Amino acid sequence: MGFTAEEIIDYWYSPKISKQWFASTAQLDAEIKTKYEALWQTASSGELDHWQASPQGCLALIIVLDQFPLNMYRNRPVSFSTEAKSIEVARHAVEKGFDQILQQEQKAFLYMPFMHSEKLSDQNLSVKLFTEAGLKDNQHFAEHHRELIRRFDRFPYRNEILGRTSTPEEIEYLNSEEAFTG
Fold first, then answer.
1. Would you place residue 39 in the very low, low, confident or very high pLDDT band (cuts 50, 70, 90)?
2. Which class does domain 5-174 fall in?
3. Backbone angles phi, psi at 84, to 5 degrees
């Protein structure tokens, strides 16, 4: 389990994995769980907080805390359990200016925790960061996510996963063609 931040980044940005960032398969989810579940548990307990000393370390920690659980625990409440911690790491990285050192596709994942947040202030920051970085595709999705939070104060597609009761407006939205389902 002695992975380095560089190994996490190399894995996440490898051609095999990057092709599946937004179109994962059950096989990839299982691979990430087998390889990285123990690392995620270590990171979630704070034992990898020292990775925050560098831009690459912050990025790797965000991948472990924000992206890996979405794969490992797809459609389960635990998939969101380290979201707040990943937001803290992302905020730290931005405050330190670490994002300015990273490549564009690396910035996209450094900023992603803000887009995953159900807090409007994080959503506003997400749109601002993606816009300023010139990440137009991500900016489009960030604006869409922000509109969902403005409209519902949460992501309706998470309601069933988290055991939340959907409002009639959310149900109507989830049954519409415009629905974002995660």
1. very high
2. mainly alpha
3. -60, -40
Q: Distances in Å between the alpha carbon of 55 and those of 51, 85, 86, 89, 100?
A: 9, 16, 14, 10, 9
Q: What is the pTM of this model?
A: 0.94
pLDDT of 1 over the 70 cut = no
Q: How does pLDDT run across 118-139, given as a tens digit for each residue?
A: 999 999 999 999 999 999 999 9
Q: What is the dihedral of CA 153, 157, 158, 164, to 10 degrees?
A: 70
Helix 104-116, helix 120-132: angle, nearest 10? 160
DSSP codes joined into one string, 77-108:
GGGGTTHHHHHHHHHHHHHTTGGGGS-HHHHH
Residue 76, CA distances (Å) to 68, 72, 117, 182 in order: 13, 9, 17, 12
pLDDT tens string 62-88: 999 999 999 999 999 999 999 999 999
